[in-house]
Design a protein that fits this description.
With 150 residues, the protein is of the alpha+beta class. The chain is built from four helices and five strands. The longest helix has 32 residues.
Length: 150
């Protein structure tokens, strides 16, 4: 018989050890991990962060309040205790992975942009215009040298 290639799906599955990001509620913008799946709408989460403001206490959360991230803590046993979750969290370097992800960087940039004053937004606009001018100038120089070669 022929060899069959078995490929895992690229979907983010609700699974024990999956890191989630809270989108609403009192823990908005905080990370936690799924410790147990209660039913098809609720999960038990625990977020042992190293930052005091980012800690998420162990509680049941509806899936509608969280977004699944691509980060998974592998081999986390179901219903693991607080200490085991904290050790696995630190071993997997979840916060470091999250901070390096494009998703986190984009969220941070949007938050920073949202907090700009009117004058700061004006300065950003002027700087972007300067950059655009320099880029167009170099492209024009390249195009003119290409035309001279022809």
């Amino acid at each position: 018989m022929g060899d069959a290639e078995i490929k895992a799906s690229q979907w983010r599955l609700v699974e024990v050890g999956r890191v989630v990001l809270f989108t609403v509620g009192p823990f908005k913008d905080r990370l936690a991990t799924i410790v147990e799946i209660i039913d098809h709408k609720r999960i038990l989460v625990d977020g042992p962060s190293s930052k005091e403001k980012s800690i998420v206490p162990r509680h049941a959360a509806p899936l509608s309040n969280v977004t699944l991230t691509p980060i998974v803590i592998s081999k986390l046993p179901r219903g693991a205790g607080n200490g085991a979750v904290r050790k696995a969290w630190e071993k997997a370097e979840v916060e470091k992975k999250w901070d390096q992800s494009a998703w986190a960087k984009k969220r941070e940039q949007t938050l920073r942009r949202r907090q700009l004053t009117d004058f700061e937004r004006f300065k950003v606009m002027k700087l972007r215009k300067q950059v655009r001018y320099e880029v167009r100038k170099t492209f024009a120089k390249v195009r003119s040298t290409e035309k001279e070669k022809e």
